[in-house]
Amino acid sequence: MIRLTNVTKRYIKQIALKDISLTVPIGKIIGIVGGNGSGKSTLLRLMSGLLMPTSGSVTVNGEMANRRTSKVVSYSSDLGSFYPTFSVRDAVRFQASQFTDFNLVKAEEVMRLMRLDPHMKVKELSKGNRGRLQIVLTLAREAPYILMDEPLSGLDPMKRESIVKGIISYVDLKSQSLIMASHEVSEIETLIDGFIALKDGSLLRMADVEELHESEALRIADWMKKAYA
Ligand SMILES: Nc1ncnc2c1ncn2[C@@H]1O[C@H](COP(=O)(O)OP(=O)(O)OP(=O)(O)O)[C@@H](O)[C@H]1O
């Protein structure tokens, strides 16, 4: 379980998250939603142990989140860290050498699903294909928690829903959870179990999608329009 207890994250000039408490168990597909600057990326980085909270605590499977958390949390890779000569397949093999839970067979399958040419140089990829490669590298790990920051950005709008469906089909809900930040609430609504809605760094609501449908008879996008007005 990922647990945040009274987490506040302050950057030098800015409070990015204020007093957030929430838990994410195994077996869930969760969307983090909210406007620009609401704190979505900061929340993911705290969960991955790449950022430390200013106050409060973040634990993953009972242990304080820190650099070692990357053993159990697969988070979007920074493609800038690869050698300029790397092809897509080199990047996949490199990732496999870094993480013992990296599944090369799964990576090849997701690469085909994403229609990525394994011979292309990483530095020559378009923005959309860089995003696809990040999805491959993140999803091919059999880590308990898969975190993705805006996996749909840069992707052709016509393909987004089918790509999210593809991503989800590779998550093993018996042993994993997928947590993804997205601006495109309507494109993920039918595919997620629950959502974390942030507004200006505060937690507006965390709920199951079904619970929202039953209690408010609203889709998330419509609820957000009301809640964020
Ligand atoms: N490294 C940083 N240094 C200073 N301020 C930062 C830093 N990263 C984020 N912020 C600020 O923290 C707030 C939350 O940013 P964050 O990137 O987490 O939001 P977001 O919801 O992911 O935004 P977006 O949807 O625009 O990507 C913003 O006001 C942002 O300007």
TrEMBL record:
Which Pfam family, an example, fits this chain? ABC_tran
Domain ABC transporter stretches = 2-225
Q: Which UniProt keywords apply?
A: ATP-binding, Nucleotide-binding
Fetch the PROSITE patterns from UniProt: ABC_TRANSPORTER_2
Q: Name one GO molecular function term.
A: ATP binding
Which SMART domains did the record assign? Answer: AAA (SM00382)
* Protein's UniProt name: ABC transporter ATP-binding protein
